[in-house]
Amino acid sequence: MKGILYARVSTRRMEQESSLDRQVEALTAWARRLGVEVVETITEQHSGFDLDRDGLYRLLDAIREKRVEAVLVQDDSRLGRGDAKLAIIHQLTRADCKIYSLQSGGELELEAGESTVLDIMARVEELQRRWMRQKISWGMRRAVREGYNPAKNLKNRGQGGRSRKDVPVEQIVALKEKKLTFEEVAATLQGFGYDVSRATVHRRYREWQEARASERKPGKEGYIST
């Protein structure tokens, strides 16, 4: 198993630097006993209440990219403090990363209240995912009900499960003409395989409107003044 050693102290005082060294030394020896291959050692001198930490970003990137399967810490407070700690543990757990705590002598053990909070967070996220799927389905049904024909309007169909990175402006305009909201347009296009957000849909529609308005200004080719 590949892992990262993560050590943190809250200030940059000299005695805290020696604490960092002790953490790394203890974690290195423990990783050896556990048979963990240490890919990287991250040390930080930063408040645990703050999520904006370079080392934390490096840790999360390594886990998302599947370069490591576990993180070893002295104790859970090294990951963070208060709500920040729970948010970090939640992200690591979602990514199937094991958290080993030297203090616990194995996988991290949380207090009952903290475990309950993390369980609630996971349940809320699952409900949000289900809600988004339902919104996409509802948006697609409404578009079709309003006369939108995906077989006729959407290009490049039948190309497998690839996510379309292009943004079909003409389809955004067509759906807006069916009186769908920007959120509904985004949900509908997502359902048809386009990787677009509400903000992107809104921005591209505004750009289309501005381009149309510019074309209608006097002096433009094809404009006839009366």
TrEMBL record:
Boundaries of every Resolvase/invertase-type recombinase catalytic domain copy: 2-147
An annotated Gene Ontology molecular function: DNA strand exchange activity
Highest taxon listed in the record's lineage: Bacteria
Alphabetical list of InterPro entries matching this protein: Resolv_N (IPR006119), Resolvase-like_N_sf (IPR036162), SSR_resolvase (IPR050639)
Pfam families assigned: Resolvase
Coiled-coil region(s): none
Listed CDD domains: Ser_Recombinase
Residue spans crossing the bilayer: none
Protein family (similarity comment): Belongs to the site-specific recombinase resolvase family.
Name of this chain's protein: Site-specific DNA recombinase
